[in-house]
Write a structure and sequence with these properties.
Chain lengths: 257, 257
């Protein structure tokens, strides 16, 4: 048990050690790829000066807005796709799979043309990045709800509306949550890409900026921060999933008889 | 008293799902019978003879093809809380606590929140699950789940209860306990009941009449009045009338016949 918790940290330390050693023996150029012993002080400096917080809050704000919009559109749409006629559903799904194949960052010129510079184009890229797995997982989750649940609800007198809200949606919630987790992960990678090209702030924007001044220790510190925040988001998603799905035997673990 | 069920010339055929449907197999062949208000009709027949299809037709889960189904003189059209199905799989809503499972049908009926939880608690008490109101279905044993499904169905006060192998998944002991429990519940409120079962003893013990069906396409082979008192006790299972009837039905269902 204890090993399960410290295991990942040991692995991380080993990799950092190898990196440090590789620089020390001259395998890697110290200027272009500074060792951890340079990156960590730079990271602390950025943290204390407030630079890092500024960049993080700019990126997190955009992701929060974009992801919320993606959820607000994607979940209801995914549920409704099970209710529309087959022709409509197939058409929409075809469109979803078409747009899903286009990497979110490819939209950046259109996004800047539509929204100008600032937060808006980046938020737009986040929505594009997050929405498709949310729509598809919600659709799949609802379509897999056994018809016997719906029949039971009908024979207990439930209206279509009650069936959607109280049966289809909660029954599909485990897979909807999976869609949200994947969507959030993609939202985070998309925002960095969007900021690299089309913003004046944020973690993604600062990477080429630091690189321009050859401050590669700062570049790596930003990259580490991106990874850590992504990791935290993923952990938070799993935690939220457990809280939101208390009926799952997996999360409660008290099966009887 | 309501709950008179009249079935006239009911036939059903499985068709291919295509523009020009072709017959796959005939399931029900010209069933005609009546069930009186408050009567329990046991339905027994060879495996795969179409008993479940039959109940699905009465519940209106699948559309009727030929024949007529009248409940209190009115043709049965859509599923509603007049005809509630209870099956082996229970179809309890896993995302609702025991109390909410029962309150669901009452909510659909438009019963106010305070009242519906009071009623739901009454029904939970009635099936001996009073202390389990806050538990999710996965925290209950098989027998408890079946009691919960029973309470949920009774709570909407259906005119007809459709029971499809309700105790099929239980061990012999829980099965017998629940059979007696059912008799006890019926002594206070007794909807008209169609009880499909493989268990001949169960059919005799619980029913006023037993309908024996033939192999597919199912037709009525015999309609038998059970020669037991209205108020049954466990000892009735050992009376000569009971054992004779059991032997008679066993002979009818044996493959040599």
């Amino acid at each position: 048990m204890a090993l399960r918790i410290i295991g990942p940290w040991i692995l991380a330390l080993v990799l950092l050690g190898l990196w440090e050693a590789a620089v020390f023996i001259g395998m890697i150029n110290k200027i272009l790829l500074p060792p951890p012993s340079d990156v960590f002080p730079a990271w602390i400096d950025m943290l204390l000066s407030g630079e890092l917080l500024r960049d993080v809050s700019a990126s997190v704000k955009r992701v929060s807005i974009g992801f919320s919009v993606a959820v607000a559109i994607g979940v209801p749409l995914g549920v409704l796709l099970n209710i529309f006629t087959k022709t409509i559903t197939d058409s929409v799904l075809g469109l979803v799979n078409f747009f899903r194949a286009i990497a979110p960052i490819a939209w950046i010129t259109i996004a800047i043309y539509l929204f100008g510079l600032g937060d808006k184009p980046a938020v737009f890229i986040v929505i594009i990045g997050a929405i498709f797995p949310i729509i598809l997982n919600t659709y799949e989750g609802v379509s897999r709800v056994p018809v016997s649940y719906v029949n039971t609800a009908r024979s207990l007198g439930a209206s279509h509306w009650i069936i959607i809200i109280s049966v289809l949606y909660p029954a599909a919630l485990p897979q909807i949550m999976t869609g949200l987790r994947i969507g959030l992960g993609l939202a985070w990678t998309s925002i960095i890409a969007a900021e690299l090209v089309g913003s004046q702030s944020g973690l993604g924007y600062m990477i080429p900026t630091y690189a321009l001044y050859l401050e590669y220790d700062n570049v790596l510190a930003e990259m580490m921060t991106i990874g850590l925040i992504g990791l935290a988001m993923n952990t938070a998603s799993y935690w939220a999933e457990k809280r939101l799905i208390p009926w799952s035997a997996k999360t409660m673990g008290t099966q009887q008889g | 008293m309501t709950g008179k069920l009249e079935v006239t010339n009911l036939s059903y055929t499985f068709l291919t799902n295509s523009a020009r449907p072709r017959v796959i197999s005939c399931v029900l062949n010209d069933l005609t019978f009546e069930v009186n208000p408050g009567e329990v009709l046991g339905i027994i027949g060879p495996s795969g003879c179409g008993k479940t299809t039959f109940l699905n037709l009465i519940a209106a889960f699948i559309p009727k093809q030929e024949g007529e189904i009248l409940l209190d003189g009115i043709p049965v059209q859509k599923p509603n809380s007049q005809r509630v199905m209870i099956s082996q799989e229970q179809n309890l809503f896993l995302w609702m606590r025991a109390l909410d499972n029962i309150a669901f049908g009452l909510k659909a009926k438009g019963v106010r929140k305070k009242e519906r939880y009071a009623i739901a608690q009454d029904y939970l008490n009635m099936v001996g699950l009073g202390a389990w109101a806050e538990q999710y279905p996965h925290q209950l044993s098989g027998g408890m789940k079946q009691r919960l499904a029973l309470a949920r169905a009774l709570a909407v006060e259906p005119a007809v209860m459709l029971m499809d192998e309700p105790f099929g998944a239980l061990d012999a002991q829980s099965r017998k306990t629940l059979q007696d429990e059912l008799l006890r519940l019926w002594s206070s409120t007794k909807p008209t009941t169609l009880l499909v079962t493989h268990d001949i003893e169960e059919a005799i013990y619980l029913s006023d009449r037993v309908m024996v069906l033939s192999h597919r396409p199912a037709a009525i082979r015999e309609m038998i009045s059970v020669p037991l008192p209205d108020h049954r006790t466990y000892g009735d299972r050992r009376t000569p009338e009971f054992l004779d009837l059991k032997a008679h039905i066993e002979d009818m269902l044996s493959p040599r016949q």
